[in-house]
Every structure is written in C-alpha cells, then in structure tokens.
Specification:
It is built from ten helices and 17 strands. The protein is an alpha/beta fold. It has two domains: 2-119, NAD(P)-binding Rossmann-like Domain (Rossmann fold), CATH 3.40.50.720; 123-324 and 352-380, Dihydrodipicolinate Reductase, domain 2 (2-Layer Sandwich), CATH 3.30.360.10. A nine-stranded mixed sheet has the order 16-15-14-13-7-12-11-8-17. A six-stranded parallel sheet has the order 3-2-1-4-5-6, with helices on both faces. The chain has a two-stranded antiparallel sheet with strand order 9-10. The longest helix is centred in the C-terminal third of the chain and has 20 residues, at 356-375.
Length: 383
Amino acid sequence: MIQVGIIGSGFIGPAHIEALRRLGNVNVVALCDSSQAVADERARSLHVPHAYGSVEALLAHPGLQVVHNCTPNHLHADINRQILRAGLHVFSEKPLCMTPDEAHELVELAEQAGVVHGVSFVYRQFAMVQQAASMVRNGSVGRLFAVQGCYLQDWMLLETDYNWRVDAALGGGSRAVADIGSHWCDTVQFVTGKRIVEVMADLAIVWPTRKASITGGATFNQQTADRQLEDKPVTTEDCGSVLVRFEDGSKGCFSISQVSAGRKNHLSFEINGSQHSLSWDQETPQQLWVGHRQQANQILTDDPGLMNAEVAASAHFPGGHIEGWPDAFKNMMLQFYQAVQAGKMPAPEARRFASFTDGADVMYIIDAIIKSHQQQRWVSVQR
C-alpha cells in the first residue's frame, strides 16, 4: 500500500481522501491542519489514523511516500517546496503557487528531486473530455481554427457572499480567472494540444465592497440570516472575458464569472475544426456534441464500448450509468498513482494528468491575463 499524507482538510481535502480510497492500493495514514486540535478533530471525522499540527511533523511521519497539498492558495508554494525538499512525491491543489517566479522555481525543484508531481486540474479527466482530445489527436476533427467557451458559477453573486479567496493576500491577485479560468485554460490546452500564447482581457469587479461574516465561514456553506457582517474591500475580479491566440495562429475566447445566477459549475468549450465541431459542458458531462456540416449532428455518450480504445478506460461503467466529478477526480488520482507506483514521471506525450509544468504554464497565462486587463492591450504569455 502506498502511504499518503494530506495537508489541509477544508472543502477539497476530503475530496482527495475519498478519491484515494477508491483506488485500492493507497492508504491515507496522516492528516495535517492549522493546529493540533483541528487536525485531531478532522482526522477522527475522516477516519485518518494520525494527525499533525504542523507540516514539518507530517513530513516526518514514518514511511510516508506521497503528500497532497490541499491548503489555501497563499500556502501552496512554501508547502510544495517543503514536500519536494523532503524527497516525497507531491500532488498540489491549483494554483500551483501565487507568482510566475514561484512557478519556475517549483518546476526546477520538482525536476531536481526526481519525484512524481501533479496539479489538480480535474476536468481533463472526464471521459468525454478524454474522448474529445483523442478525436483531435487522431485528426478526425480536422484543422482546428477556433475555440470558445466559458466557466460560470453563482456562489459569489450576493453582496454578502464572502470567502478567503476574495482576500488577495490569501487567494492571490486574481480570483475568478485563477480559480476557475485556470481550469478552462488547462482543459482546452489539453484537448487541443495547443498552447495559448497571447491574451486580451477585460475583467470586472461587481461588488467593490462585500459584507463578510465576522465569524468567517466555510466555502459553499449555507448562509444564516442572523450573521454579524463587516465591510471588506474587494480587489479581485468577479467576472470577465478573454480573447486568446494559440501557437498555431488559431483563435479563441472565453468568459469567466462567479456571479452568474443559476450557473453552479458551468465549464464548457466548443472546438471548431475543418471537419467537425466538438462541444462539452461539465453540467452534462456524459455527453459530447459532435457538429457536422453535411449530415446530422451527433451526441456521443460515455459508453466505454463506443469510445476510442485509447481512452475507453476513462469510463468505468456501461453507458447510461452516469459518472461525474468524483469519478473524474478518481481518474486523476489513478493516473497520478500509476506514475507513483512506477517511480517516475511518464513521458509528456503519454501523461494524462497535469504536472507542475502544466501548473506553471497556467500560472504564466493567468499572469498575462491580469497584465492585459491592467494595460488594456494584447499581452504575450511569458514562459
């Protein structure tokens, strides 16, 4: 059994633990949180045998092989450094870090350490996203010339919606772009096999001041009417639109929003090629729309018997048995832990999970988007 430690047990940490327990060859043996008392309580509730109140103590746990960094954004870079310097395999939540310089440093450290390294870009792991990427790779879509899409949510719509991600010191200088736009960029670059090289962005803050609960609150928790509130200035974007240019000259555009009423987790993309178009929506993830010019359009479903052979294993049940986000999360962990078991990173052309290199690449795109908005011009992605 591969021995694993988890750092951070808020919204996303338990999702990691659930996915890991579905693999069968991984044992979550230790958990670390902000204090020993919090770690003890969370370890009990999540049935993890060992709890630690510091990263250093967790990294010293006997026999530990892999560590997952599930902490808030501002802690990612430093904790990732500590894990790498301990010589352990590392799986980091996105964003990989807060700045492009940190991204460069972490990629170098990961390569020097010779460990398996991954970043939690989960949407590329959906069966129909894998199918779309396979269709692009085998040429059936033809020459790609345009991509469009969006990632829309509504959990920050109200003036009283607040979360640590709003605080630039904790979440970073970008919010909607870094938090969800990053997923769109990674997914589209994975499917198309093309890098974004230039961007033009226009971003917006809907609530320049938000009303936050004095006692705080967890992500996505239901609000209560009797909360005591205080004003909090907002410097990070709620929504925006981005034009993109890819390395082969093809074009694209996408919108991001955390203030779109009724949209809970609407990541979608459409790819236009000279033979077909492909369209996928995360809120109906088992379907891939295939558009044609001279015949009826098609809707493919995540039936492994009907998918391209090279990606059929991304769907685990017969057609009609709906698979969703937790199953994509499991796929991501499965791909990562196959590399851990092999003891080395797969070759880039064979690797289906996002590495620190991919995480850094998205950081460079986010940096260019923020600069573009600030300067109101096209900006090249500096890699």
